[in-house]
Amino acid sequence: MTAIRRIVVAMALVVATTSLTGCSDNWGWYVVNPSTKSGMANLRFLIGGLYYTVLLSVTAIVISVAAGLLIALPGLAANRTLRGFNRTYVELVRAVPILVLILWVYYGMPQMTGLSISVFWAGAIALALSDSAFEAEIFRAGIQSIDKGQYEAAHSVSLNYVDTMRFVILPQAIRRILPALGNQLVYMLKMSSLVSVIGMQELTRKANELVVTEYRPLEIYSILVLEYLVLILAVSAGVRWLERKMQADVSR
């Protein structure tokens, strides 16, 4: 089954599920039934968190990719001090749970810096900081996989280190690590749900608020699961399309 077909099936499941008006006394699918005014309002309320989920995840992944690349380069240096910085950063950041990091950034950073920080940027910084350690390892592995002859060829035409990385090494490395980068984006979409603990109005927070008012956790969280399913399947399909496109460009 193709990714597009899986997305269509998932969307059909959403429609089928929300159309149920209750198969037993213990079920209350009416709260998310699009054929009723209240059910449609609840669905719109739930979907309203999609914008912030996507925006938060994309912002965090862009920051983490840039930071991960900068952190990966010292790990490739001949200098032991630079390599030590890379290993220390990666090990320390990976050891901290994301939820703890979110709480520390939101509540602790303002006290340390004296600057107020919004919920959105607290979540984006925490997610990016946590993911940057994984991105650094991905970039390091991808760059190390490039044959040394590529460096020698670049040096033979008088390219400096920056140009060698920009025009020769990184384009090849990115093609190889694209699946891993796509996995990290999917991971970021899922981990963005943890930012709900500090009040971010994303998908999970919207679902939690609706559960408090409607008292139907099974039905509401079922829709939440399907929302993430459709979103992540769509992102996965996009990543695979980009992989095929880059491979086709290389083969020309």
Model description:
Mean pLDDT is 86; it is low at 20-24. By secondary structure, this protein is an all-alpha fold. Helix 1 runs antiparallel to helix 10 (217-251) and helix 5 (98-113) crosses helix 6. It contains ten helices and no strands. The chain has two domains: 1-49 and 203-252, no CATH class; 51-200, MetI-like fold, CATH 1.10.3720.10. The protein has helices spanning 3-19, 37-47, 50-75, 80-95, 98-113, 119-144, 148-156, 161-191, 203-214, 217-251. The chain is flat and about 70 Å long.
Radius of gyration: 22 Å
Could you give the count of β-strands? 0
Task: Please trace the helix and strand order, writing H or E for each element.
Answer: HHHHHHHHHH
Major sheet details: none
- Judged by helices, strands and strand pairing, the structural class is mainly alpha
- Unreliable sequence segments: 20-24
The share of residues in extended strands comes to under 5%
Relative helix content: over 70%
Number of helices: 10
> What is the name of the CATH superfamily of the largest domain?
MetI-like
How far apart lie the N and C ends?
Answer: 28 Å
As an assembly, this protein is single chain
Number of domains: 2
Taking all residues together, what is the mean pLDDT? 86
* CATH architecture classification of the largest domain: Orthogonal Bundle
- Fill in the CATH topology of the largest domain: MetI-like fold
